[in-house]
Amino acid sequence: MFLNPDAQLMPGALHALEEFAFANPLLGAANPLIRDKRGRARLKISSPLPLPAMPRPALDEAGQLPVLSGGALFVRRAAFEAVAGFDPAIFLYHEDHDLCRRLARAGYTLWHVPKAQAVHITGTGTKRSTEMAAWKGYQMARSRVYVLEQAEPGTGFQQTFWLALIGLLGPTNLLSKRRRAKHTGQIKGALSARHDGGRYVTK
User: Fold this and answer.
1) CA dihedral 67, 70, 75, 79 (to 10 degrees)
2) Rounded CA gap, 177 and 198, in Å?
3) Single pTM value for the model
4) Do 17 and 50 sit in the same domain of this protein?
5) N or C end of the chain, less CB within 10 A?
6) CA distance 70 to 4
7) pLDDT tens across 147-183, in order?
8) Helix (H, G, I), strand (E, B), or coil: what is residue 10?
9) What are phi and psi of 165, to 5 degrees?
């Protein structure tokens, strides 16, 4: 069970996920129903990676998804080891998307299990500042280039750079210094990734 530091499992959640996994032997990973601090819930359905089309389950119904959130991620250990776990070349962001892509490619299924629930207070892991927004944007872009290149070689830089540029020029960001810093950081990250593919290498 991978859990963000600003996330918490509700009582019985882990047991419910285990029961569901035992009943579905092809399950590679699953999300509980993840709520925010106001109790609102939504399914993870977006990703920088190309996703297969599939019916979207209701919030209160178990169903398969094309991608899962890493905020509260339950993974079958055998499946995790079969695909070599998280890619160490990803420093920060999109490692959950990349793992889901490789699990699905290996024949495992990805599930939404609403009988299990968690609360994830997003955006509270670090203080909000223009400097942190720029740093996060930089790392996000580098990871985006990398995971896109793993899925569809030759697409990473173009998709990441132009999306960041459009974001920077968007009218909603004119009055937000922090948002401008985020998109500027993304542009710098995309340009940096042109030289090394966005791969993180420990020193």
Assistant:
1) 60
2) 26
3) 0.92
4) yes
5) C
6) 8
7) 999 999 999 999 999 999 999 998 888 789 999 999 9
8) coil
9) -65, -45
